[in-house]
Design a protein that fits this description.
By secondary structure, this protein is mostly helical. The chain has one domain. About 40% of the residues lie in helices and about 0% in strands. It is elongated.
């Protein structure tokens, strides 16, 4: 920023300019004991990494009034399981979760359907039971694994069409 006109400046003073440091430090190397020597681990029970995953916890609130949960299911379990499915979808695209990720997760399991198939309700009640509790982590990972990558790569409209015609094709229920 320039100085006001009333501030006297000496024409002989040198202006401040950049000068390089005398010593340039060496580049950083990964050598600490806790550092990863390769890419972020993935697969198995490691989950699915991606940026800003906590945003899915904010997005799930928008669906609470739309969810069709029966008396044997707990909202915490439903939200926990579907958030993890949504995060898997978001990680496929390498981005933060968006509302469509959660919509697809809820749609696949019939939580947005007033007249869901009784067989689907029975299956989801069994699979979602207790997954919000930390000691059911392996059950949660199996729940997420039941939704194949091909299903998660579908558009929300395609998932809805497939759900109406044959919901079993969206899942790997073995």
């Amino acid at each position: 920023m320039g100085a006001p006109r009333h501030v006297p400046l000496s024409p002989t003073n040198d202006a401040a300019v950049y000068s390089s440091p005398d010593v340039v430090p060496l580049s950083w190397k990964n050598g600490r004991p806790g550092d990863l020597s390769s890419e972020q681990p993935s697969g198995g029970f490691m989950g699915h990494q991606g940026p800003d995953q906590g945003f899915a916890l904010r997005l799930r609130r928008a669906f609470r009034d739309q969810l069709r949960v029966n008396e044997t299911e707990h909202l915490e379990d439903v939200e926990s399981g579907c958030v993890q499915i949504a995060l898997k979808r978001a990680s496929i695209y390498g981005r933060a979760p968006v509302v469509h990720d959660l919509e697809i997760a809820y749609r696949i399991w019939g939580f947005l359907d007033d007249d869901a198939d009784p067989q689907l309700i029975q299956e989801r009640s069994r699979r979602f039971e207790g997954v919000s509790e930390s000691h059911h982590y392996s059950d949660l990972r199996r729940l997420v694994a039941a939704v194949p990558r091909e299903t998660l790569q579908m558009s929300p409209e395609a998932v809805e069409e497939q759900y109406v015609s044959d919901w079993k094709a969206l899942l790997e229920l073995s």
